[in-house]
Amino acid sequence: MSGAQLAATDKTFRVLTRDEVDAFNRNGYHFPVRVLSTAEADACREKIESFEFDHGLIMKTPFRNKPHMVFKWANQLIRHPRILDTVEDILGPNLLVWGTSFFIKEPNDPAYVSWHQDSTYWGLSHPDIVTAWIALTQSDIPNGAMRVVPGTHLKDQLPHKDTFAENNLLTRGQEVAVEVQGDKAVDLTLEPGEMSLHHVRIVHGSEPNHANYRRLGLAIRYVPTYVRQTEGPRDYATLVRGRDDYHHFDYEPTPRIDLGAAEVADHKRITEEANKILYRGTDRLES
Ligand SMILES: O=C(O)CCC(=O)C(=O)O
Prior knowledge:
- The chain is α+β, with helices and mostly antiparallel strands and 287 residues long.
- It has a single domain (14-278), classed as q2cbj1_9rhob like domain (Jelly Rolls).
- It is 25% helix and 22% strand.
- The strands form 3 sheets. It has a 7-stranded mixed sheet with strand order 1-9-4-11-2-12-13. The protein has a 4-stranded antiparallel sheet with strand order 3-10-5-8, with no helix packed on it. The chain has a two-stranded antiparallel ribbon with strand order 6-7.
- The model is unreliable at 1-5 (pLDDT under 50).
């Protein structure tokens, strides 16, 4: 038995089984994993709704992205031991959070997500990146649950075209420019407090919300510390587990209070830098 095989045999798993990790590597996704109780998920949702009562829909504010920099509850969520234990089973023990984004669809909302690979514009050096998509309401077929095309993460980077379509929730409204076998897609339906995991290269998207209830999810992007940004001088991330022997990213400050002046200023500075990477080659600085 080779050293690598021996290491794989000896590996202990924290949440997933060996078969589930093998299936993730083969299929590019895994779901569902319960990470919060329904009451805990409701408490997060209520925090968002309380913000929205004063400021309007969070999806229309800059805090749609990197909310973990301005809300203490979101910063605690990205460090949740159950999420980290699960992600560690796939990516190993040294983990950064590179980004967080809300994906929220209002009742009867035309908003959708076109077929895409996350890796397209992120500029990150390795495709060893996993998104934990945390459902804070139920996410089902009527309200437009996320859909993935199994095994497509094994393809290389596919060509995409930017559409900037009005109801597309992606930065550039980007979509895969080759045929997608949508009939093979799997619906990642989730209950509040459950999460799905998907690989950065898997082709995925979602339909509009045809239901009369909201769909509220938070996507957390986990990267191992050896990954680096290839498209900018520096990029920012938060170390959430293990050691960082590489220091490829500047660390984001942890919020001391919700929406404090310093927290909001740091969020603005860092998301503006991130947008230079995400919108490179276009004349836009935000969607
Ligand atoms: O929430 C959705 O429908 C899509 C989310 C997505 O594209 C992502 O998390 O990468």
